[in-house]
Amino acid sequence: MLRNTIKLSYYPLPAKPGEDRIQDKERYSVLKVCIIGSGGREHAIAQKLAESPHRPELWAVPGNAGIAQIATCVPLKATDVEGVVALATSERFDLVVVTPDDPLAIGMVDALQAAGIRAFGPNKAAARIESSKAFAKELMKKYGIPTANCEIFSDYEKAKAYVQAAEMPLVVKADGLALGKGVLICNTREETLNALELIMIKRAFGDAGDTVVVEEFISGPEVSVLAFVSGETLKPMVSAQDHKRALDGDKGLNTGGMGCFAPSPKYTKEIADIVEETIMRPTLKAMIQEGCPFSGVLYFGLMLTKDGPKVLEYNARFGDPETQVILPLMKTDLLDVLLAVADGKLAETPVEFMDSAAICVVLASGGYPEKYETGFLIDGLSGVPGDIRIYHAGTKLEAGAFKTAGGRVLGVTGLGPDIAAARGQVYSAIEGITFDRMHCRLDIGIK
Ligand code: AMP
Ligand code: GLY
Question: 20 to 30 A from 86, CA-CA: which of 127, 242, 368, 421?
């Protein structure tokens, strides 16, 4: 009764044995939500949850200095499954949002659910869609989902023999998680053979390279489309475009992402319909057929080729920095959607986005993604206009001041009626933020 009046009947927690629910009403009146992870993406999720009308009590493992402004951060590793289950049990979290790829791949969601804790994210079997490229490619082949043609090898000699007779260029991919570095684009036979040797013999990515995918090179614009998924229910988010290279004009080394904008003008309604029909729904059905229905956020990394949209990769989670532009555009309460997915009720929950645009520019430490220094004072944060969102990725708080503590330091997100307007907002806000050796791309949102 009482819980109905405070609109919590939808999220009841079982009482612990011997406990009286009514006496426990104080505890039930606030939802406790814990986010696993420590980047700009997790800060964007935490911030969106902090804006929820449910006013949840936020926790993070391990979180970061930005997240610590709005959540209780617990210094456990994001991959500490036992530690997270113990914390979730003792603190009686209503929801744990497992965000990064590695805890998903090792089964953190399975462990939480086994302990009776509601978790958002795919279980270990479903997370294979990201954690094993061979699994993803075989799934696409079996169910006719458009992707680059490929061969899969666990035997180095066989892989070498194949490459010696194949047409170039080729793309060589380590099967497992490799911090986003396991994809090598090879223009010549020699480069391809070197890539095989690097992954399979020199084991540059460890076990992740026990199996390799050797793939046809395809071309076209890239777009990321994330969707909330629960079994067969699909609720796509706005499309986004990531900028992975360190320098303007897509030059320099690959990074974790230097910026992003949403929506992508190339992802038209017509293309979205084709993608839903030929890629998204078939993927959800395939996962069900394979006995591992997906639940969580499914990220479709797409290439819009002249033969139609094709899958480059799947991720089993929110993207970084895509999340930093997608969530600020979300109209629906994120907490309602996360709970609905975790409870298998997504079909009944609308998911809506604004018609506006957003861009996020990453402020990085000079030298990133190679060698860089940290510990520099970040100046100007308090002068940033209120409608600009600052997401911390690599900062620390020392004596009341934020200092740099990572390669990617901050993500600065702005909204506007279109990308040009959002871009203007963000770059003018960035002019007021400084730290020694700060580097950012100046062309996010121009392409
Ligand atoms: P992935 O981690 O699989 O998304 O690959 C990283 C990047 O490599 C993609 O964003 C593409 O730019 C590129 N890439 C991956 N696979 C291919 C392919 N088959 N053909 C051309 N480029 C590719
Ligand atoms: N932005 C790509 C990723 O999150 O993997």
Answer: 127
pLDDT over 60 (residue 23): no
Cβ(185)–Cβ(215) below 8 Å: no
Which ligand is in closest contact with the Cα of 173? Answer: 1
Cα of 172 vs centre of ligand 1, distance in Å, is 9
3-state secondary structure of 299: strand
**319 ligand 2 Cβ < 6 A:** yes
Residue 444 inside a domain? The answer is no
Q: Which amino acid is at 80?
A: D
- Among 176, 197, 216, give the residue marking a domain's end: 216
Report whether residue 94 contacts ligand 2, using a CB cutoff of 6 Å.
no
How would residue 4 be classed by pLDDT, with cut points 50, 70 and 90? very low
- Residue 13, pLDDT above cutoff 90: no
Query: Dihedrals φ, ψ of 358, to 5°?
Result: -140, 145
Instruction: Return the C-alpha torsion angle 46, 51, 54, 57, nearest 10.
Output: 40
Q: What is the pLDDT of residues 94-110, one digit of tens each?
A: 999 999 999 999 999 99
Tracing tokens 């996020």 back to the chain, one arrives at 360
Angle value at C-alpha 277, between 271 and 278, nearest 5 degrees: 85
Beta bridge partners of 186: 170
Q: Which two tokens stand for residue 89?
A: 């049990």
For helices 281-289 and 124-131, angle between their N-to-C axes, nearest 10 degrees = 130
Please give the distance, rounded to the nearest whole angstrom, from the Cα atom of residue 210 to the centre of ligand 1. 19
Angstrom CA distances, 109 to 4, 33, 175, 304, 404, stand at 29, 14, 22, 33, 32
Q: Are residues 191 and 118 in the same domain?
A: no
Instruction: Say if residue 325 is in the same domain as residue 255.
Output: yes
Is residue 175 within 6 Å of ligand 1 at its C-beta?
A: no
Domain hosting residue 51, numbered range: 25-123
The confidence band for 319, taking pLDDT boundaries of 50, 70 and 90, is: very high
Q: Cα(first)–Cα(last) distance of the chain, in Å?
A: 55
pLDDT of residue 5 exceeding 80: no
* Assessment of whether the complete model's pTM goes beyond 0.90: yes
Q: What span, in angstroms and rounded, lies between the C-alpha atoms of 11 and 210?
A: 43
Is the domain of 203 the same as that of 236? no
Distance CA 18, CA 348 (A): 34
Kindly report whether the peptide bond that precedes residue 169 is cis, defined as omega within 30 degrees of 0.
Answer: yes
